[in-house]
Fold this protein.
Amino acid sequence: MRPKTGEERKNYITPGGAERLRAELARLLKEERPKVVETVAWAASLGDRSENADYLYGKRRLREIDRRIRHLTGRLDSAHVVDPAAQKSDRVLFGATVTVADEEGAERAYQIVGVDETDGAAGRVSWISPIALASLSTSFSPARACQSRASSIGPSRGHRDAVAWTPA
């Protein structure tokens, strides 16, 4: 079985994550890119471009902005927005918040989100991360904990016990 390529892999994203990507795209198109274009035009009007730092840096920055715009546009075009609030299940699904405890009893909550909206410090992990894959589709009830394997997450390796989950 061959691994899925970027085109074959689903690009799931929460509504909030999609909105953040749209806001970044709008900021780049309406604010940042026009400023850089203006700076490059001004620097080009000064003459010798080969030794003009404003021109050289501006062109480099413009390429970076255009690359990011293409990336964001592609990600938004392929995005499959999943509203966690609309999902009703007794299983852990995309968008759910899972609380896990390690061997010492330290608990940490994670929300399972799309690849483009991960932020470990904020407790948002990608749905393709090991801890999310160990939790997804697991059936939970408030009175029952489920042991799942997450072998490469966090400072303590090995088993983690899921102690609670919130279906968004």
